[in-house]
Amino acid sequence: MKSRSLCFVATVVFVLGSTLACQTTSAQQDSATFDADGTAHITRVIPMPATISPEAQKWLESLNEQKVGPPETLAERRTNTDAWRKMDSAEARKLYPVNVEETSMAGVRTDIITPLSTPESKRVLINLHGGGFNSDSGSLIEGVPIANLAKIKVVSVYYRLAPENPFPAAVDDVVAVYKELLKTYKPHNIGIYGTSAGAILTAEVAIRLKQLGLPLPAALGICSGHGDFSRVGDSWQMFTLNGFPGRMEPVDPNHLPDDQYVGKTDRKDPVLSPIFADLRGMPPSLLVTSTRDILLSGTSTFHRALLQAGDDVQLVVFEALPHAFWYNFNLPETSEALQIMANFFDQRVGR
Predict the structure, then answer these.
(1) Class of the CATH domain delimited by 74-348
(2) What's the angle, vertex CA 350, arms to CA 324 and CA 201, rounded to 5?
(3) Taking the domains of the chain in order of start, what are their residue ranges?
(4) Are 121 and 181 in contact (CB under 8 A)?
(5) Cα 331 off chain centre by
(6) For residues 309 and 280, what is the distance between their CA atoms, to the nearest angstrom?
(7) In what order do the strands lie in the sheet with 153-157?
(8) pLDDT tens digits, residue range 12-56?
(9) Is the pLDDT of residue 283 over 90?
(10) Do residues 332 and 53 make contact, with C-beta atoms less than 8 angstroms apart?
(11) Residue 119 three-state SS
(12) Global pTM value
């Protein structure tokens, strides 16, 4: 495949930014200028990286060619993500065969995902899907592969969504499911993990469990998330959900926009933003992100906070891929990421 360069122009840091992403075959001159307030105006030519698989290179090129339409309404977003979820879930079940039972637990809708071959039934994982807290883009897509690879039952939780149900509704739902599972499973046989919104929720739930004096799970998987709603990380100002291409959503860090999930809650609330909580004694945690992830900064900053608290925490950063790339089952990097996640839980839960 012939590599194409990507010209990326951004205004970031202390004011609202603007981007221009364009494919070009002519030479471009890199530049970086700075305003008095520290605002950076950056032009960079980013060639297609040779450090990722051919499949990933092809995928990145296809993302560059996607057209950017008008912003979705909430109804459109939920319709679109539901369609993608059904399609990707079918692919996940084809590649990673499992049994799926739709049920409810503690009054919360759940899917019970069971590997076809389970050596023992003493362990369970709770999966919290992504989707920006206002839709479901993950559920089976996240739960099916890990159940198959780790040979551990997964309970995928359909927590209540914003804006109808802002924080802490989702946290309360997951805590209710966790308390129900404690009737059957010992805490060291339970793990919790999620991607994007589900990753953020995973950390929030752990802090809430600490506040309630409940025993903590054996391990956490925080896959492209953050622990701080009060500040905006650098990667949020540079990347989109697709890395370089797509609709930019830079924000003025001095005037954060309203967030339907946050609602009226103080952004430094220690459950909403666990980076402000006492993180000492958190369960062993695996954090996964990538270098073009819009939440790269949030994930890495939370990793450092856990390290500073003396916790057992691992950070894995993949090369050149965008947010939650492991939803794309065609990439070798996805197989690698899923196996890392599965191995982590197999080694940490119930051991």
Answers:
(1) alpha beta
(2) 35
(3) 5-47, 74-348
(4) no
(5) 17
(6) 5
(7) 98-105, 108-115, 153-157, 124-128, 190-195, 219-223, 285-292, 313-322
(8) 332 323 333 334 444 567 888 998 888 888 888 889 999 999 999
(9) yes
(10) yes
(11) coil
(12) 0.90
